[in-house]
């Protein structure tokens, strides 16, 4: 790490700053301004030195208002120096004057450091778990003054300054103090409060001034296209969600109903003029809608600050700041609290895999590859033209782990869905031979990323029981959702990408051909319990020319709607937690675009309203019937009833769990009603029909079994003969009289 140094001796035998020091301070090239500026003891007395551009006269005062001495101008650029009538070192205020007027300022160089040796120790070790309380911009009272403490990691910089509207964006004015053991620069700037935009001006190791950098730990940012960080008060929301949090702390999420509504906050709904809803407006509209539709969780696509709307938040430049698109950070806290009070969890899409190379962001942060790998074979992502975090660097791992903890602690989020895990796990992800570097054992596994993910999951689950982590992992990497101490990555859940791919492929086939693709449905049960799965029908399936879920279904319009309803009931009866992207609950016809709101007018049409009603009823059944959720992740809760009737494209299985009646799920994926169809069942007696996606209320043909079937014991075992409606899924619950 390059160590900044003073450019000359700090004072001569007469106590005055050397000419070299004065020139370096005025030029903004001094490596250690605290050695020159501020209050210094000279010959048993004290002198003050300050840099105040545009001033012609400066008088020093104590913070209590006592005149401490007149300072002389040593350099017309604004360097002042003079003796003080003080008995002890203390912070100072200056009264500056010129021909145009006068102003007051408090000297940041007359204050001591805020960070301490314990911070240095834990930061250097990479084990500090409260970095968000130390780095970034914090409004504090310090040594008798109020202001903002700034701290940023830039170990290879020659100089780091805070710039903002409070100093005319002049990097000479607020040069920071470097803590050499950690490479962290800090400065307390008095007399500024919340709401002030700022950035860091950094001189790299080669002496080149970098583009102004946003604060990696900024808790608030300007609204794009502006990119400055903003000083902010800590979240002051008074939480009222203890009952919700206590429930999940004491629950096993694998055995609870988890039905997730995936939302892009910028396009769920918009104002009539196309502008974004605020968090408070989203709370007023989205939370009641989710409650009414029956979902248990909202999962937001990334809401941390990002410069480019069409990135959907996946190219974030401010991991610690809720996006200014939706208002103040406190608004997001109010949203989460409101959701919790309504019984809804909030999951955030989290992106620790990569970051954009915008000039104001993390890339080349201090003039070196600091957060990213220097070698593009490890540090550059060819798919997204982004930089890849250096997971082998403890400070980078600490930055990311702390961010996960930050959202759980400060905003009470219920979970993190971790994006692009597969791209993190494999060194050769999307790379050809020669474009990647093997690990130390010669393999393709990114062992540093594995260690990071394990560390993140251990810290999140260890410090925030009740918060879940969910991996978007598209390969067969083993034990993604198994505990770290058992050799797993430590996630709570994993997206089942195979389920999504196979089922959508199946339903895109014309019904007459589905008998040849029967295995697309049955194969998923071979591995359904190898992980704790979430079944995702996510935004990825309805963008980039992929159309919509309704459009993917084969057949004419009636068949598309019927198949989609049957598909949803099939999925809600299938083992695994559920996820549905916004708009698909009412069969959105247009492909999703982040630039427009969903087509809410479709709910006025019977077919679309029928799909919404189906999803609503499925969510109610899923939440109220232990058989449908309490053994989602365990093979004991599933058994096939009919697995091999490819000729009729019929599937049937049983879901069961302690504390609830068993439920048979039966799907007929052809448009042909199957009359007198025999389904084996485990118990004789009455089985009540609790949902039938062909019901006329949903827009179906209304065929069914008059609400129930009777299972009887015969020579071939226990079975019930019933009508299977066309392109439908029915669920039968054992309900003996």
UniProtKB/TrEMBL annotation:
One of its GO terms (biological process) is glycogen biosynthetic process. Pathway: Glycan biosynthesis; glycogen biosynthesis. One of its GO terms (cellular component) is cytosol. Residues 262-629 form the Glycosyl hydrolase family 13 catalytic domain. The active site is at 419 (nucleophile), 472 (proton donor). It is an enzyme of class 2 (transferase). Coiled coil: none annotated. One of its GO terms (molecular function) is 1,4-alpha-glucan branching enzyme activity. Keywords: Carbohydrate metabolism, Glycogen biosynthesis, Glycogen metabolism, Glycosyltransferase, Transferase. CDD domains: AmyAc_Glg_BE, E_set_GBE_prok_N. Its EC number is 2.4.1.18. Belongs to the glycosyl hydrolase 13 family. GlgB subfamily. Catalyzes the formation of the alpha-1,6-glucosidic linkages in glycogen by scission of a 1,4-alpha-linked oligosaccharide from growing alpha-1,4-glucan chains and the subsequent attachment of the oligosaccharide to the alpha-1,6 position. HAMAP family: GlgB. PANTHER family: 1,4-ALPHA-GLUCAN-BRANCHING ENZYME. Monomer. This is 1,4-alpha-glucan branching enzyme GlgB.
